[in-house]
User: Which sequence fits this backbone?
């Protein structure tokens, strides 16, 4: 086995994580059904409940604030409820006792129907209050880690500033040793750990918490693959909030990307969306669905069974994308189709997309020497110009390396073979590009929002996603650095900005950007 442990930090990350685990559950097969191409042991751990029943629960650690878990409890149908606090108190104290209980959150209708074995009602942004409202899996009690020091959406003590997350980690780690208490039990269950993937908000205090967690983890695990999916809030917002978020993002990019094997920023709301995507930007249930679709499809090759076409590993992807350099930040682009649209395209027209999608390229009008220009959803966050300087968003884009993960028949087998053969040519020119294609489509289940328009209700999605190291990554980091230079305090400014500039230089080594910097 090549296990992967998933760490989730904060509300947006746990919305993404809930979609992820719901999707993984659908890949299980039972009885006489054909064996799933997904190796469930990668992301799920075997165990036993209190009554000896065999269980299979996610290899996950879920961190969130007080009040953020909704109706999710550490106890569930697999692991029984703890003894009643009043009864315990009565046994330990002979005098009068008063038990103070906070008002319990009412279980959503969706969860009630699941518990009763009934078909659940249709969800909507109005009925999804917490990420636990659409959760379909059981977690081990050790997976649930509630941080009581801060409360969700508190106006008195908001969990917003990067340094706040650092301070919280330091105080908790000093008291408990978080890695020993939380992570080590999951590590000890792994036979051959493939990677640790961390899903976190990067533009609030969770970025600081994650950076400290990753730093401690590096001390313990050395060169183990550690992927970080940095989630950033898109869309318009008040200027003071935007400045705070850019300052947090600058710290996250600087601190996390220097320690992570791969750092992939994902926006909650791309600047431009194709007309077939109908996203409610104010609903975490909606925005996390788009992020999850990109993340889950990109990492699909890492959990396929041995012998499956398109199988890969986190380490292999890192080697491809770094391309003998130190490029640890990657850009993610995606296209989505109804699988019926792909029928007949793979033979002769696999490289083309319908005009409905080609008309939208998220502002990437420059030259792109890969298929990124054909993907109409750009998940890389955009940084607003807060300095008044003239930006340059139309520079030609050079791709160093790229991994394409295709779900559905986007290309013929011959095209896939030709792409991968060219990538292995040590003397070849141009970017290193590898393609992995699987027939396993993304399942649109009742917990997943119907945000992709089609003539009918979509049950499966064909997804074309690419993860690339490109010069546009450096352009975005430079934009963040310019703003950070004007808003970060003088004590931190020099080291932070110098670090960001150093990151940018990794995307220019061996590439003369000046000759390709003119507008088309």
Assistant:
């Amino acid at each position: 086995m090549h296990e992967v442990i998933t760490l989730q930090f904060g509300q947006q990350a746990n919305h993404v994580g809930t979609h992820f685990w719901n999707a993984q559950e659908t890949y299980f097969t039972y009885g006489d059904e054909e064996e799933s191409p997904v190796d469930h042991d990668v992301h799920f751990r075997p165990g036993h409940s209190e009554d000896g029943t065999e269980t299979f629960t996610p290899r996950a650690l879920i961190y969130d604030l007080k009040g953020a878990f909704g109706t999710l409890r550490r106890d569930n149908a697999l692991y029984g409820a703890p003894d009643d606090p009043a009864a315990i108190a009565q046994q330990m104290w002979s005098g009068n006792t008063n038990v103070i209980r906070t008002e319990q959150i009412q279980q959503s209708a969706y969860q009630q129907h699941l518990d009763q074995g009934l078909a659940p009602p249709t969800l909507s942004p109005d009925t999804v209050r917490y990420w636990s409202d659409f959760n379909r899996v059981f977690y081990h009690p050790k997976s649930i880690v509630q941080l009581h020091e801060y409360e969700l959406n508190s106006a008195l003590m908001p969990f917003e500033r990067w340094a706040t997350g650092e301070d919280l980690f330091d105080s908790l780690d000093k008291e408990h040793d978080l890695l020993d208490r939380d992570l080590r039990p999951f590590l000890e269950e792994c036979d051959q750990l493939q990677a640790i993937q961390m899903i976190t908000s990067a533009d609030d205090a969770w970025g600081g918490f994650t950076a400290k967690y990753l730093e401690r983890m590096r001390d313990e695990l050395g060169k183990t693959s550690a992927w970080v999916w940095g989630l950033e809030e898109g869309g318009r917002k008040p200027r003071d909030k935007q400045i705070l978020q850019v300052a947090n993002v600058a710290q996250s990019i600087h601190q996390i990307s220097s320690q992570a094997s791969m750092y992939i920023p994902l926006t909650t709301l791309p600047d431009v969306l194709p007309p077939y995507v109908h996203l409610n930007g104010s609903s975490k249930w909606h925005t996390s669905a788009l992020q999850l679709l990109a993340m889950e499809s990109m990492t699909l090759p890492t959990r396929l069974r041995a012998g499956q076409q398109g199988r890969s590993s986190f380490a292999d992807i890192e080697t491809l994308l770094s391309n003998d350099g130190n490029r640890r930040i990657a850009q993610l682009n995606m296209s989505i189709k109804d699988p019926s649209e792909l029928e007949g395209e793979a033979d002769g027209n696999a490289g083309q997309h319908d005009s409905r999608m080609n008309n939208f390229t998220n502002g990437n009008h420059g030259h792109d020497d890969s298929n990124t220009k054909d993907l109409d959803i750009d998940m890389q966050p955009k940084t607003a110009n807060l300095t008044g300087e003239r930006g340059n968003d139309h520079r030609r884009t050079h791709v160093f390396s790229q991994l394409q993960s295709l779900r559905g028949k986007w290309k013929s087998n011959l095209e896939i073979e030709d792409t991968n053969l060219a990538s292995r040519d040590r003397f070849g020119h141009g970017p290193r590009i590898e393609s992995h294609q699987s027939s396993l489509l993304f399942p649109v289940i009742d917990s997943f929002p119907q945000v992709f328009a089609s003539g009918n209700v979509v049950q499966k999605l064909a997804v074309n996603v690419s993860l690339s190291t490109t010069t546009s990554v450096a352009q975005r980091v430079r934009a963040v650095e310019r703003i950070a230079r004007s808003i970060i305090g003088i004590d931190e400014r020099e080291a932070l900005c110098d670090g960001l500039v150093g990151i940018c230089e990794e995307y220019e080594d061996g590439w003369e950007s000046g000759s390709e910097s003119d507008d088309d």
Remarks:
- Confidence is low (pLDDT under 50) at residues 350-369, 513-520.
- The chain has 14 helices and 14 strands.
